[in-house]
Amino acid sequence: MYKVSIRFFNDRKVRAVWDEEHCKWWFSATDIVRAINNEDDYAKSRNYWKYLKGKFVKEGIQLVSATNQFKFEAPDGKMRKADVLDAENVQLLAKHYPNNRANDFLDWFVYSDNSLDGQSKKKAYTLIESGLLDSMEPGTISSLQQIHAYLFGGLYDFAGQIRTKTIWKDGTLFCRAEYLPENLRMIEQMPETNFDEIVNKYVEMNVAHPFMEGNGRSTRIWLDLIFKKRLKMCVDWSKIDKKDYLEAMRRSTTDARPIKALLQGVMTDRIDDREIFMKGIDYSYYYEEHED
């Protein structure tokens, strides 16, 4: 059972699998071509990869062997074997791409894992295996602080600490710092016995925005923790479009119905499925990427 992860380049998925034996990520070659070419058609991308592979062989550039294949979900929903590349060969492919469209992809690929978000995302992947979530009391401020500290420890000097400054984002004023401690105590006491109550609590926590940075990524994990402990359910974030989610959360300050409708439609009982968790992390960090 391999860990499956998803990166996003210009809103195109680049899927990867973790190889425990060799301790490395393998990336879907077809996804890379599709991202570089910004191609909607999966079949065209697959065929172009086949063309590139043959072209590189003739030029003496060996990117992939028959043994470097893993199963990914195809457009028809079936799991099919596909060529994969490790990080070194992804960079080799980009550097020898027939046109300059791969330059931006290469910059993104090299930078993405070493950025602050990339490092935090690696921490998030290990969170489920740490056992920390199982020990937390759902819906508490303390559990949210522990999640934030885990994700951003060593990256932000304020990891896990409630902010003491008032902040704005995209024209939205979050809870003023002088009122924040009392507001958080009120949110902590909100009930969480059913779906509506849990989402209401999540919305209020988003409005409070207790940390200087990293609120969205932390509170989505916190929300899933409540769902798992109270309802034996969690959110399949991979089924929620980024723009739909951001718009629903923007509206949630005055109307929680859109975010409730989005979440209600993608609830799953696969609470112990590692792939669901990892996809959730991938999409959670993707939601935070700024649009051009």
Strand content: 5-15%
DSSP helix count?
Answer: 12
| Overall pLDDT score | 91
- The domain count comes to 2
Q: Would you report the number of β strands? A: 9
Which class of the largest domain in CATH terms?
Mainly Alpha
Global shape: elongated
Poorly predicted tracts of residues: none
What class, by secondary structure content?
Answer: alpha+beta
CATH topology of the largest domain: Fic-like fold
The CATH architecture of the largest domain can be named as Orthogonal Bundle
Largest sheet: 5 strands, antiparallel
Helices and strands, with pairings:
Elements (H helix, E strand, L loop, with lengths): L2 E7 L2 E8 L4 E5 H9 L4 H17 L10 E5 L5 E8 H9 L6 H11 L3 H15 L10 H12 L15 E2 L2 E2 L6 H9 L6 H14 L6 H17 L2 E2 L6 H10 L5 H8 L2 E2 L5 H14 L5
Antiparallel strand pairs: 1-2, 2-3, 3-5, 4-5, 6-7, 8-9
Helix pairs in contact: 1-2, 3-4, 5-6, 5-12, 6-9, 7-8, 8-9, 10-11
